Amino acid sequence: MPDFPYRLAADKLLAWFRPEARPMPWRELKADGTPHSAYSIWISESMLQQTQVATVIPYWKRWMERWPDAAALAQATEQEVMKMWEGLGYYNRARNLLKAAQAIVTRFGGKFPTEHSELLTLPGIGPYTAGAICSIAFNQPRPIVDGNVVRVLCRLLTITFEQIPSELKSRDLLWRISTELVCRAAESDHPRACSYFNQAMMDLGATVCTPQNPSCLLCPLNAMCKARAEGSQSLYPCKKNLPRTVHREDVAVFVRDEQGRVLIERRSGESRNQGFWQMPLAEDTDHKKAVSYFRKKHIRLEEKQLTQLKHAITKFQITVKLYPGQTDAKFKEKKDLRFVTAEELEQLPVTASHSKLLRFLQKKGL
Ligand code: SF4
Questions:
Q1: C-beta separation of 240 from 170 below 8 A
Q2: Which of 5, 214, 325, 359 is the most exposed place for a label (fewest CB within 10 A)?
Q3: How far is CA 238 from CA 67, 76, 157, in A?
């Protein structure tokens, strides 16, 4: 382990942390003065992956009102869960929440597991989420390492990711450092030491030790930070080996029937966002190729583009080009490709990009 004043760092972070500094409803006490349940922490942590706190808060509130515990969630259908998650992206997280809630009911009698090893057996719960639940909800000395924590630790101890083999070693090292820190925090007499320490680490990375221009003057760890001493904060963590961005174009078609209903299709079981609805879409293509693709589905794609929208999913920067179209005489509706009214559409989970396109069409009165 690198030489570092672990206990002092833990004490300084604990003294710095104020749960109200970044207000989050799952951090507040409930009306009866007790903390929120492990289930609610799990839901918040799952929503927070790749998503800003401000975006998550209304989703979390709606979710907790509808499904206040794992037993209630286990009764939901996948379509209801997808609809509730609509707009948060990375939909496998929502599917896994449902599967994990069902597993909690069948394997743990509906009682939320308190052991790290038990949590790791549930769908969608990896070392980060298990560590976050065990430390935040149960105050256990379990480490967490996410993008924010990686940045803080790499800067504090000047750890680099030069090549892939050493990156793997560094990541393992970061988990060990995080464990050491939360175990030293547990030695303090703070009643919620592990919970507060890990939340403090998350807040430090999100608000002080930011990717650009970290606020080192305000940082409670500035006196022990090796990167600050060298003035090399911007070099950590090393950005080598990050996946490169891939640009892609998709073509979508907007078709209405004589009754004003819109044609939509359901994404197949194999694809990203599976189970979500969208206007018929040809991925990674151009207008010419999309014409033949849609012809096979008995949809005629017109020439004049209606609009386009850019969005990002993992490493993909996607431009969706939307064209009007018509079905031909041979077109037949199917279970996963059909016309729906505006009211029916309201009840279905729709991909975020197509929700935006549909709102655009509505605004234009199309
Ligand atoms: S001193 Fe600066 S670089 Fe070091 S941990 Fe604090 S904010 Fe990050």
A1: no
A2: 359
A3: 41, 43, 13
Helix (H) or strand (E) holding 106: helix 92-108
Q: What is the pTM of this model?
A: 0.74
Q: Verify whether residue 162 is a known catalytic residue.
A: no
Question: Alpha-carbon dihedral of residues 93, 99, 105, 106, nearest 10 degrees?
Answer: -150
Beta strands in the chain (DSSP E): 246-254, 262-266, 277-278, 281-282, 299-301, 307-313, 316-327, 337-340
Distance from residue 220's CA to the centre of ligand 1 (Å): 8
Regarding the beta carbon of 134 and ligand 1, being less than 6 Å apart is answered no
Catalytic residue among 28, 45, 115, 283: 45
Is 60 exceeded by the pLDDT of residue 241?
no
Domains of the chain as residue ranges with CATH: 6-235 (1.10.340.30), 246-363 (3.90.79.10)
Phi, psi of 159 (to 5 degrees): -100, 130
Q: What is the pLDDT of residues 292-311, one digit of tens each?
A: 999 999 999 999 999 999 98
- Decide: 221 in ligand 1 pocket, CB within 6 A: yes
Strands 316-327 and 246-254: parallel
